[in-house]
Amino acid sequence: MRILMIGDIVGNPGRKCIRDLLPKIKENYNIDFTIANCENLAGGKGINKKVINNIFTYGVDVATSGNHIWDKKEIFDFIDSETRILRPANYPVKTPGRGYHIFELNGNNIGIINLSGRVFMSDLDCPFQKASTIIEELRSQCKIILLDFHAEATSEKMALGRYLDGKASAIVGTHTHVQTSDERIFENGTGYITDIGMTGPYESILGVESEPVINNFLTQLPERFEVASGKVQFNGVVIEIEEADGKCKDIERIQDLHEF
Amino acid sequence: MRILMIGDIVGNPGRKCIRDLLPKIKENYNIDFTIANCENLAGGKGINKKVINNIFTYGVDVATSGNHIWDKKEIFDFIDSETRILRPANYPVKTPGRGYHIFELNGNNIGIINLSGRVFMSDLDCPFQKASTIIEELRSQCKIILLDFHAEATSEKMALGRYLDGKASAIVGTHTHVQTSDERIFENGTGYITDIGMTGPYESILGVESEPVINNFLTQLPERFEVASGKVQFNGVVIEIEEADGKCKDIERIQDLHEF
Amino acid sequence: MRILMIGDIVGNPGRKCIRDLLPKIKENYNIDFTIANCENLAGGKGINKKVINNIFTYGVDVATSGNHIWDKKEIFDFIDSETRILRPANYPVKTPGRGYHIFELNGNNIGIINLSGRVFMSDLDCPFQKASTIIEELRSQCKIILLDFHAEATSEKMALGRYLDGKASAIVGTHTHVQTSDERIFENGTGYITDIGMTGPYESILGVESEPVINNFLTQLPERFEVASGKVQFNGVVIEIEEADGKCKDIERIQDLHEF
Amino acid sequence: MRILMIGDIVGNPGRKCIRDLLPKIKENYNIDFTIANCENLAGGKGINKKVINNIFTYGVDVATSGNHIWDKKEIFDFIDSETRILRPANYPVKTPGRGYHIFELNGNNIGIINLSGRVFMSDLDCPFQKASTIIEELRSQCKIILLDFHAEATSEKMALGRYLDGKASAIVGTHTHVQTSDERIFENGTGYITDIGMTGPYESILGVESEPVINNFLTQLPERFEVASGKVQFNGVVIEIEEADGKCKDIERIQDLHEF
Ligand SMILES: [Fe+2]
Ligand SMILES: [Fe+2]
Ligand SMILES: [Fe+2]
Ligand SMILES: [Fe+2]
Ligand SMILES: [Fe+2]
Ligand SMILES: [Fe+2]
Ligand SMILES: [Fe+2]
Ligand SMILES: [Fe+2]
């Protein structure tokens, strides 16, 4: 099975890029199932009903997320009922929404998990322990398990990857909006990459206009950040999984540049 | 001119990798000048006289560094007299050593700057302002200016890169020990990559043994980290610069895997 | 000379408390000059023209501030012209407003400095170096120098206090909104207290309603914080200074509780 | 019942101060039970068998702790068997030692809990949820419940205090080494103070020599911190509890200064 995981889609430019490029990418890479991190989908911050529905229409099967998922209050209206949206599973119990779910495709169960790091981030439950518990629960029903680890620190990301080596099909990082070139398969068969990057404006800083970000660093005064415009980059990774045992057979980075 | 910049060299395995691979890499890529981040050179933490001299013998021309440069007290004995070692230039004035220097090669002056980020790091002087001031000073003597920005946050790194677009030949990130795949040339001719990665043990977490790092995340108790062994990865970037105007003509990532 | 320094005034309840209590406090304690931290004056976040003018009318002579000073955009309209408002002096050069100023009272020059800490706070210029530079500049004109150090970490606050012992009349901390009981006079004559506390709602968490703050800790989800109501606490410190040499002769904490 | 809680005892000077002053303080204040935070007992960092035994000999009944508890490796030899030592209860399950325990005194059960904050500190389990769970467990056996909340941020400390109002006899903060003057009894009968301070060298920065701390802030270079000498301050709080219902009837700060 070939699974496409797409890095944080940022705002309107990111969504248009998915709309325009996704069909062809899925065809070219022979994709069976598509997961996209959508925490920055609506104006760069959060998700609303309209844009997430569009994304599903464009061919995304499951939306993972991260710290920005709560930025638009509207999310609380539909996150409990929309099983295709995941939020980090290590938010406190009772948090609205779900952090993992099993999806069925051609007779195969695919377990998808979303977790957030803690280093330089919010004080959530331990992602290492949470991952163990969830995977143990999923294992009886799924051979294929994929995890979007939304985290900042490279040490925490690689540590989780190695900790879960042999227990999941692939651990894929998001959040930094910069794709890393360290994709690999660990020795027990788990695919890994520290960050799959961002799908959004190319002439930007992490998807937003450069000038206010630079000013903010220079002045330390509050600035208003807006999603940038112009060319859009597509960032993602294609993971090939052996359905018989859930092992990762291949992990390949994708970068594309789209002009409207 | 073709310049090789090498990602944080970690411990004995990293040094051996440089010793064994550097001559051939320099030949293959037609390298004129070699810069390597050496903050993790001695046992993964800091620099001592012996190992830094070895590194220069192996063919490195200039050593940049970062937060770990002070880990071995010995550094204070020679950092003032050894002009080939740079520490981040935005440490307070009066800090031992230097943060930038001009090197001469075949009649060309090459200005090398080392700076540290502040986001999730130490409270240093502003790297944006410091970079401006230093570049203004160097400009009259150097067409070619290269900057090793040792920083954690992708936003700070890309912001500095864009801020200096057109003012330096290349801005190259280090510190995360994971190479990114976002190398590019900004529109005013400055080469950029968020992180050039690490030269050190491949079966590791950022160069050190995996198990103590994983345990530290699981237990939150202090652990002793040791440089890992086994295969070694070489990470770096080749930057081609037009000598006439200092513009970046090409930036290419290098990854190699070395077994002893 | 007897100087009153008032801890962060929070919102409408804090302002009313000043209006109602300040005249009597000034009389009871024989106050010559009054300084108040006003970063939370308008709705708990920032300052606007109307509320700051009211505060001056109520008898405050100088307003210091901190990280929240920029929360209301209106501040940029008048911070350059209103010399009675100070913002932390270690913001980058060119930041609007001023970080220190000399005020004249009965033939005495009083130098007031406002600085921000860096530990767990914004990446500003070094408060230790900045304090030295400013004090050197003020010394020729002022015997009396007071510093509001708006900072989080007790180590940074006490370190600055001891660093400046003998160079200023008093170093007084703000920002944590909790008054400390460590007021003292260091051996070279500088008065010190880690934090003078907050003037605002008593039944609150740092001035804002308790429930959203508790929820935010429990859920890690965004919450909207509102200034609380009910009884109001007055927090401050009275500093007695020998005019002849600027030494601190006494430092006394004040706490009062006000019901409307 | 009258309970004495003593702020972080720092090194040899702190221990001597306890040895010399504790008997008289217990007599003067009519103390029935004594709890002391001992995370800095041995050389300012951690605990060893000898010094903790001395402290118990001097009259401390229970030792709470915090982030520094693990600094001396020796702790792992006896923390499991010594029930009078507590470490923060919100370390991951399976962490050596215990985070709460019931102590018996004259037919009364006293439940003591130790927790660590997370803001600006380690990534532990949620102290709010953990406190709820533990208190629910203790409630059936103890009317009197005391909690040492070892935390940095005033917001987190006061939030936990208010969250537990009516569920514990008192919530007492430690860790900042600076005593606050906000002791109070919340409306449902829980005593509270943000920080009870430090028992250790008075001419110091948080117990250690001032100069290296100041240098560290000025240079941002590593420094070696040593416990200071000279006069010693005693910091603590006396809590009077109604045995019938466990409510706090009085909370009084203690400060003393001891010269050898
Ligand atoms: Fe994102
Ligand atoms: Fe994110
Ligand atoms: Fe490094
Ligand atoms: Fe580093
Ligand atoms: Fe404030
Ligand atoms: Fe503040
Ligand atoms: Fe302590
Ligand atoms: Fe502590």
UniProtKB/TrEMBL annotation, chains A, B, C, D:
CDD domains: MPP_DR1281. InterPro entries: Metallo-depent_PP-like (IPR029052), YmdB-like (IPR005235). GO terms for molecular function: 2',3'-cyclic-nucleotide 3'-phosphodiesterase activity; metal ion binding. Keywords: Hydrolase, Iron, Metal-binding. Fe cation 1 binds at residues 8, 39-40, 177. Pfam families: YmdB. Transmembrane segments: none annotated. Its cofactor is Fe(3+). Fe cation 2 binds at residues 39, 67, 150, 175. SUPFAM superfamilies: Metallo-dependent phosphatases. The active site is at 68 (proton donor). PANTHER family: 2',3'-CYCLIC-NUCLEOTIDE 2'-PHOSPHODIESTERASE. Belongs to the YmdB-like family. NCBIfam families: TIGR00282 family metallophosphoesterase. This is Metallophosphoesterase. It comes from Natranaerobius trueperi.
